[in-house]
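Our collaborator T.R. sent over the components below with a one-line note: 'Predict the complex.' Nothing else. No constraints on interfaces, no templates requested, no preferences about which chain binds where. So this is a plain run: every listed entity goes in together, and whatever single assembly comes back becomes the starting point for the next discussion.
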Amino acid sequence: MRCPRCVQRIHRGAESCPHCGFSLAEADARFGSDDVRVRTLTDAAGLFRKGEREHVQEAMGRISRRFPQLYAAVYTGALGEMAALRQFGFWLINRAAFEDLPPNKPNAAGILLTIDPDSKSAGMVFGYLLDPFLDETDTFECLSRGHAYWLEQRYVEGITRVLRHLERVLKKRVAQARRDPEYFERKVMPAAMLGDMVCSIREGHRETKTGGEVRK
Amino acid sequence: MRSRPLLFATAWMLATVPPLYSQITAADREAFEAAGWIAGSLLLENKPDVPPEEPVEAPEETTDDMKTDRASEIEEPVAEAVSEPQFPIDFAKRPRTFLHDAQGLLSPGDKRDRLKFLDYHAGDSAVDLYVHLFDKGQSIPDPEVHAAVLDEAFHDGKPAVVLVYFMGEPQRALLHLSPGLKGRIAPRECKRALESAMLQAMEKNEPSAQLEAFLVQMSIRIYWLERLLGGEKESPEDQPIEVPAKVKITDSLMTQVQPWIDGFLANLKWIGLGISACISTLLASLWWVRNRQHRFPELDVEPRLGGAHGAGIGAVISFTNSQVPPMAQRNQTPDYLPR
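Returned assembly:
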């Protein structure tokens, strides 16, 4: 994954970005440290006309129906620069309290689509539940589906296209996880365990006290 | 008002003048009658010399299908009975030609044309068409006897339809089937054929043209009667009918296909049930595939950057400029790095 501010890669379990020192605390300093009560569909920028919200909600609800663990959320608002959009997405998925979500659905099961009509940029972040299964390429492919519509300011159509493609990607990832669960388990394996594995292999190359022979 | 007495006087004088006929003497009358006729005698005579007509015998309605099949229910004119000496038509044997005009009602040219057409029909059809011509107003003395004689005459040989046609009265035409065709063709079909031919004939004014139209339409209807005959199963006692090759091919095809059609119709309910079950299964499968729920395995992920629910930027795309496609934005670079 990448740091929301410097866009450099960071390792698993990093408390802060090793490159720029960014963490949630800095995002809190910028956007607020308290939880914010929003709905899964929040049109703060006023992009949707009357009757268009239902189309977006239908697309969002379809993801919840097909993937009962997950939910999709859409936020539109003026945030300024693209860098702010990255940090805002990261901040909102950690600080949002979605009013219209059942309590058994944590934010970690969410996929948040953020659109800033001022900076004309859109971002997509996801929680830890999908962290092993999705990567930046998948979310970028999803956002690419709405690019042509957003250029013409047809936001609703762009969002529905994005969510429809996201549904296909999630379906594919579920099938892959069913076929090869170890692949995804290895992706989220803690670094300490990885170190143990390296140690055990290296130990195999060392001389043992009992046998005294060296393996190659 | 002044002329009223004059009008009365004129009317009285005209009433008292004896008719012209009464001024003719008996000798003159005999002379005129010997010469031919007396002009105006029919109008001026008080008692015409024409003898009273004999009581007319209307044709009897019998139960026999073909004898009573009239082309229509039009009121029939008074018909003159045909007697053997007057019209020596020999019904007791099959005629040598298809057109029997014993009274010479047709001109030689018309007769030749009609005969040529009937010969052509006989060469093209499995059922011959024989025509007996009678004059207008004539009638068959005893239709039952006439029908029996025709049955005897056409008992053997090629199946035939005998038409008794009255010139100028196509609605009185009678149709008689040879014994080989009786019972195989429904009377209503014959009646339809007669009506159809009569309607065609009634469109013409000339009796000869009426006969021509009648025969053409009757020939067409006989072709359809042949088709009806071709669809039914032949019984051993029926006479063989030479069916054209085209009809034979159709019959053989129908014979081959008929068991399949019968089997299909007999099992139509089960076939429909099976198709419905297949369609229902397909629709249910489609619905299940489209609405199937998926679950991701829940794996433990170490939190990053202090975020309890998620971390990272996922992806960001800019739609500021249409000249910058999404592919050019795949590799994200930091454009703003505030500290």
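Summary for T.R.: Chain A is about 45% helix and 15% strand.
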